[in-house]
Amino acid sequence: MPRLRKDRNMPAQNKTFWKIGLYIRLSKEDDKKNGIEDDSESVVNQEKILRDFTASYFEPGTYEVVDIFPDDGRTGTDTARPEFRRLVDGIIRGDINCMIIKSLARGFRNLADQQKFLEEFVPLHGTRFINTGHPFIDTYADPRSVSGLEVPIRGMFNEQFAAATSEEVRKTFNMKRERGEFIGSFAPYGYRKDPDNKNRLLIDDEAAETVRHIFRWFVYEGYSKRGIAERLNQIGEPNPEAYKKKTGLKYKNPNSGINDGLWSAITVTRLLQNAMYTGVMVQGKYRVVNYKVHKQVNVPEEEWFIVAGTHEAIIDQETFEKAQLLQRRNTRTSPGKKTVSVMAGMVRCAGCQKAMHRKTARNITYYHCRTYTDKKTCSKHTIRQDNLEAAVLQALQIQIGLADGLAGEMERIQAAPDLRQESKHLSHALLQAEKQLNRHRDASDSLYMDWKGGELTREEYRRMKTKLAGQLRRFAETASHLKAEIQLMTSSGAADPFLTAFLKHKNIPALNRGIVIELIDAVWVHENGKITIDVLFADPYRPNN
Higher-confidence residue: 25 or 43? Predict the structure, then answer.
C-alpha cells in the first residue's frame, strides 16, 4: 500500500483540515470463518490498522479522527447499517469530510451501492474517500483512482462472494432447522439458550411462569388479551423485550426505540399463538427476499420447519389448542372490563349459523342475531343472557350426573393451579417493587440536600424531582396491585373455590368460564327461544349408530 505524504502529493494551496470518520465492519460470517470468539477483538484490530494508517498518511495538525463507526455483525449488502447511516448523516451535516475504510468489502458487498456512493454521494458532498486496501483509493490526492476499471471489478467480486456466502449460510440454517436445532439469536420469551449448546432451548423458570399465567387467565379465567396486558402491567411484570434486557441480553428490534416495557394486547396475542410453548420447534416462518433485498416476507405454513419434541413444553397441547379456538371466536369485552362473559364466543344463531351478539337495554342483557336486526336476511333469534345461562347450567348438571366417571374427569380438568408457586412468584415481585420504592424514596430525600448544598441547580432539582415522583408513583401502584393479588389468592384458600364446590355437591353449582370452555363447543339459539347445546363429552345414553 503506498504511503503518500500530504505535503508532496496534495495541492499546496487551500489546505483543508480533515475531520475523519473511520468506518469498520465485521459480519457474522467473518466471525465464523476466522474462528474468532470475541467479535469486538476483530473490530479493535480494524480500528488499530486505520489509526496507524491515518497517523502515517496525514501530516500532524492537519486532521482529527472525529469518530469511529463500527458495524459489528452486519452484512455489507445492506447500506441501512446503523453505523454506516450515522457516518453518512455526519457527512451530510458537514461534521465529517473524510471517510477511511480498510477495504471496499468492509463498506460494500453490493456493486450498485458501491458505485452510487463513490460516483454520486462522495462528489456531491465534497467528501474525501480513502480505501487503504487494494485498489488504493484517495479521491482527493488522486481523483482518477475511483474511476479505474479495477474498482468496479473488485466490487463485482465482492458481490459474488456475498451471494455465495449467503447461499451457504442459508443451506446450513435449513439443515439445522430440519434437525430441530434452534438458530435464532434470542430464545423465545419463556426459554433460554442452553449454555452448553446454543441450538438447544431450556426453560427460563421466571418467564415461563408468566407464560403459564397468561394461558390460564385467557383459557380458564375468561380474561381478554387486553385485560391480561393490563394485569401484567399493574403487577410490574416487564414485557418480553424489557425482560430480555433485564437479564443482560443485548436485544434490539426495529421498534426498540419506542418500546416502553409495557405489555400490549398484540404482545399477548403473539405469545398465545406461539406453538413453541408446546415443545414443538417452529422456524422458517419468515425469510429475506435475497442477499441484496433484506426485507422479510411471510413464508407459507406448508414450508415452515416444524419438529416436535425438541425441548420441554411450558404449555400442554390441550390448553394451547383451546387458546387457538378461543382466539377464533368472537370474544370482545365490554368497555372497562378485563374479562369476557361466561358464554362469550359460544352462542350462535341456529338460523344463519353466525355468532350472536350481546346487548344490554333497560338493565337486561340478551343475545340477538345481527343478521336479522341489521340485514333482515334471517329470522328473529333472541334470548336473555340470564335465561340462557340458567338453561345451560341445568343441562350440564344433568349430563354430568348421567355421565359415568365424569366427576373424576372434572377433578382433573379443574385441578387447582400450583398456588404456592404463583404466590411465591408474586411475593418475589412484591419484594422487588418495595426495594425499588424504598430506593427511590431515599434518592428523593437526598435530592433536596444536594440542591441545598449547591450540587444541583434549581432547574436540575425540579426536573429530577418530577422524574423521581413519577417513578415513585409507579412503584407504589405496582406494590399495591401485587398486595391485592396476594390477598385475593390467600382469601381463596389452598384449593380452587370452584373445585371445592364441585367436590361438595358432586356437580357444578354455577357456570364459570373454565368449565364452559372444557365442556361446551357451541350453544345454538332457535327462533322460538329454545337452545341446542353441542357438548365436548359423550352422552352415555345416546344409542350407538
Answer: 25
> How far apart, in whole angstroms, are the C-alpha atoms of residue 390 and residue 30?
68
Burial pattern 359-385, b for ≥16 Cβ within 10 A else e, equals eeeeeeebbbbebbeeeeebeebbbeb
Query: Would you call 165 helix, strand, or coil by DSSP?
Result: helix
User: Which uninterrupted H or E stretch holds 226?
Assistant: helix 225-234
Which residues make Cβ contacts (< 8 Å) with residue 522, sequence separation at least 6?
346, 347, 348, 533, 534
Q: Measure the CA–CA gap between 81 and 294, rounded to whole angstroms.
A: 11
Long-range CB contacts (< 8 A, 24+ apart) of 381-384? 381/349, 381/350, 381/351, 381/356, 381/525, 381/526, 381/527, 382/525, 382/529, 383/525, 383/529, 383/531
Which cell numbers hold the place of 503?
367436590
Say which CATH class 190-328 falls into: alpha beta
CA distance 62 to 204: 55
CA distances from 489 to 2, 417, 440 (A): 76, 11, 29
Q: Tell the residue number behind the cell numbers 413464508, with chain if given.
A: 299
Q: For the chain, state the CA radius of gyration.
A: 32
**pLDDT tens figures, 471-515:** 667 666 666 666 666 666 555 444 444 444 454 446 777 787 777
Tell me the whole-structure pTM to 2 decimals. 0.59
- Overall fold of domain 6-162: Rossmann fold (3.40.50)
Q: What is the pLDDT of residues 306-354, one digit of tens each?
A: 899 999 999 999 889 888 888 877 566 655 566 777 888 889 898 898 8
Report whether 444 contacts 514 (CB < 8 A): no
